[in-house]
User: Which sequence fits this backbone?
Protein backbone atom coordinates (compact mmCIF):
# COMPACT_ATOMS: atom_id res chain seq x y z
CA UNK A 1 0.00 0.00 0.00
CA UNK A 2 1.37 3.44 -0.90
CA UNK A 3 2.07 6.16 1.64
CA UNK A 4 -0.84 8.09 0.13
CA UNK A 5 -3.28 5.20 0.62
CA UNK A 6 -1.96 4.51 4.12
CA UNK A 7 -2.46 8.13 5.17
CA UNK A 8 -5.91 8.22 3.63
CA UNK A 9 -6.93 5.07 5.50
CA UNK A 10 -5.44 6.27 8.79
CA UNK A 11 -7.20 9.63 8.49
CA UNK A 12 -10.61 7.94 8.53
CA UNK A 13 -9.78 5.82 11.61
CA UNK A 14 -8.94 8.63 14.02
CA UNK A 15 -12.34 8.80 15.71
CA UNK A 16 -14.05 11.84 17.14
CA UNK A 17 -12.47 15.19 16.36
CA UNK A 18 -12.64 18.56 18.08
CA UNK A 19 -10.77 21.59 16.76
CA UNK A 20 -9.78 23.94 19.55
CA UNK A 21 -8.00 24.01 22.88
CA UNK A 22 -8.68 23.65 26.57
CA UNK A 23 -7.92 26.57 28.83
CA UNK A 24 -7.54 26.38 32.60
CA UNK A 25 -8.42 29.50 34.56
CA UNK A 26 -8.24 30.66 38.14
CA UNK A 27 -10.72 33.42 38.92
CA UNK A 28 -11.53 36.09 41.48
CA UNK A 29 -15.12 36.68 42.54
CA UNK A 30 -14.88 40.34 43.54
CA UNK A 31 -15.90 39.84 47.17
CA UNK A 32 -13.36 41.84 49.23
CA UNK A 33 -13.70 39.39 52.16
CA UNK A 34 -13.02 36.30 50.02
CA UNK A 35 -9.78 34.33 49.95
CA UNK A 36 -9.37 35.30 46.29
CA UNK A 37 -8.98 38.94 47.31
CA UNK A 38 -5.86 37.83 49.20
CA UNK A 39 -4.44 35.95 46.20
CA UNK A 40 -5.90 32.43 46.55
CA UNK A 41 -8.08 32.35 43.44
CA UNK A 42 -11.03 30.03 42.75
CA UNK A 43 -10.54 27.16 40.35
CA UNK A 44 -9.38 25.71 38.26
CA UNK A 45 -12.23 26.24 35.82
CA UNK A 46 -11.99 24.75 32.35
CA UNK A 47 -13.00 26.29 29.04
CA UNK A 48 -13.06 24.89 25.54
CA UNK A 49 -11.98 27.50 22.97
CA UNK A 50 -12.90 26.72 19.37
CA UNK A 51 -13.24 28.49 16.01
CA UNK A 52 -16.76 29.85 15.44
CA UNK A 53 -17.67 29.18 11.80
CA UNK A 54 -20.20 32.01 11.63
CA UNK A 55 -18.07 34.83 13.00
CA UNK A 56 -14.59 33.53 12.23
CA UNK A 57 -13.60 34.39 15.79
CA UNK A 58 -12.67 32.16 18.68
CA UNK A 59 -15.63 31.17 20.82
CA UNK A 60 -15.49 29.48 24.20
CA UNK A 61 -17.67 27.48 26.49
CA UNK A 62 -17.22 26.38 30.10
CA UNK A 63 -16.72 22.63 30.47
CA UNK A 64 -16.85 20.36 33.51
CA UNK A 65 -13.59 18.81 34.70
CA UNK A 66 -14.85 15.29 34.00
CA UNK A 67 -14.93 15.88 30.22
CA UNK A 68 -11.45 17.43 29.97
CA UNK A 69 -9.55 14.18 29.28
CA UNK A 70 -12.03 13.03 26.61
CA UNK A 71 -11.92 16.44 24.97
CA UNK A 72 -8.11 16.44 25.07
CA UNK A 73 -8.17 13.13 23.18
CA UNK A 74 -10.55 14.57 20.58
CA UNK A 75 -8.34 17.65 20.15
CA UNK A 76 -5.28 15.42 19.67
CA UNK A 77 -7.24 13.42 17.07
CA UNK A 78 -8.10 16.62 15.24
CA UNK A 79 -4.49 17.83 15.27
CA UNK A 80 -3.31 14.47 13.91
CA UNK A 81 -6.07 14.57 11.27
CA UNK A 82 -5.05 18.08 10.23
CA UNK A 83 -1.38 17.07 9.95
CA UNK A 84 -2.23 13.93 7.96
CA UNK A 85 -4.56 15.89 5.69
CA UNK A 86 -1.83 18.39 4.84
CA UNK A 87 0.56 15.54 4.14
CA UNK A 88 -2.05 14.03 1.80
CA UNK A 89 -2.39 17.36 -0.01
CA UNK A 90 1.38 17.59 -0.43
CA UNK A 91 1.55 14.04 -1.83
CA UNK A 92 -1.34 14.77 -4.22
CA UNK A 93 0.39 17.89 -5.49
CA UNK A 94 3.58 15.92 -6.12
CA UNK A 95 1.61 13.14 -7.88
CA UNK A 96 -0.04 15.66 -10.22
CA UNK A 97 3.26 17.27 -11.12
CA UNK A 98 4.23 13.88 -12.41
Assistant:
Amino acid sequence: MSTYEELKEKTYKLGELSPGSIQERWLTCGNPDCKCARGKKHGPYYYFAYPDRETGKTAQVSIPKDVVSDLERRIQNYEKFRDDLWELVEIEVEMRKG
About this structure: The chain has a mean pLDDT of 89. Residues 9 and 29 are 49 Å apart (CA to CA).
